Amino acid sequence: MSRISIILSFVLLGLVSWYSLEGFETRVLIALIPFLFAVQISLNDLLELYVVGSLRKNMFNLVIAPGTVAHELSHLIAAMLTGCEIRRVNLFRPDSRTGNLGYVEYAPGRDEFEFLRNLLVAFAPFFGCGILLILLLNVSSAITGENLLDFGIIDVENSFSIIIKNFINQFSYLDAYPALLLIIYLQLCLGLGSAPSSQDFRVSIRSLKKKWVSVVLLLLVAVSLIMIGEYAHILGDYGVQLSQAVRTGLRFSVVVLSISILFLVLSVPFIFVLIRFSEIGTNGKLISLIITLLMLIITNSVLISVCVFLLLLFLIRYRRLFLKPR
Fold first, then answer.
1. Model pTM score
2. Which tens digit of pLDDT belongs to each residue from 120-172?
3. Which terminus of the chain is more solvent-facing, meaning fewer CB atoms within 10 Å of its CB: N or C?
4. What 3 state SS string does 81-105 have?
5. Domain that holds residue 152
6. Distance from C-alpha of 238 to C-alpha of 248, rounded to nearest angstrom
7. Is residue 246 located within the same domain as residue 290?
8. Are 200 and 228 contained in the same domain?
C-alpha cells in the first residue's frame, strides 16, 4: 500500500468519524486525531524524502540519532510487550538506499491478533517519543517559569499557543541556563522521532486483509470506549472514571500530535542549516565552529554565538554572491 493511500485512509477515517458522531461531546477530538495523523505522516515522509534527496552525507542522520533511537526503541518495547518474536534490532543504522535510519524486525505470530500487534508496534513511537517530548517541554517550562502542558488542553488553538510560547521563550533563557540548548535539541529530535512513517503502517495493513477478527475486535473496543465516554453515568462511579480515562487519552493524543506537527515544521530550518553546513568544505566548517566557540567564550551568550554561526555559514556557503568572479 502506497504512502498516499495510507494518508488518504486517515483522512477518510476522520471524515467518517466527524459525520457519524454528530451530537457526541468527544466528536471533535475523535475526528481530529486521524486528520492530525495524516498531517504528521505527510510531513514526516516529505522531510525524509527531502533529506534523502538533498543530504548525501550522514551528518543529518547522526544529528537526529537520539530521535531515531527513541523511535526504534519504542517499536522494540511494544513488540516485546505484545509477545512478538524479536529477530533483528538495530536502533541506529542509516541505509542510504532506503532512507531508513534504523529497524526492528519481528514476527507478530500467525493468529487472529496479528493485526492488533502490528498496529500497536506501528503506533509505539507516537506514545514513547510523545511522552518524552512532553516531559522535556515541561522540564524547560519549569526552568523558565512558563505554564506546564497538561491533558486538560482540549482545543488545538490553546495547545498550539502554549507550545509555541513555551518553545520561543526557551531561547530568552539560554544565557542563564545554557543546558536549555541541549533540551531544545532533544525536543527537535523527539519531535521528528514521534512521527510514525507510512512504512510503519504497511505491515499492519497487509495483515489487515487476512485477520478480520482483529479488525472486528478493534472496532468493538473503539465503539465501546466512545460510548463509555458519552454515557458514563449508566455505569455509575466506575463509568465516570472510565470516561475520564478515555477523554484523557484523547486529549493526550491531540496534544502529542500538535507538538509533533509543530516540531516537524520547526525542524525545517534546522534541517536546512544542517544541509547547508554539510555542503561547505572542511576548512569552512572548522572556521565557522572555531569562531563560534570564541564568540561564546568572549560574550558568554549562547544566543549571540548561534547568530554568529548562522551568519558565518551564510557568508561561507554563499560567498560567490559577495566575491567578484575573476
1. 0.74
2. 888 888 788 888 887 887 888 777 776 665 555 445 556 666 777 777 778 77
3. C
4. HCCCEEEEEECCCCCCCCCCCCEEE
5. 3-266
6. 15
7. no
8. yes
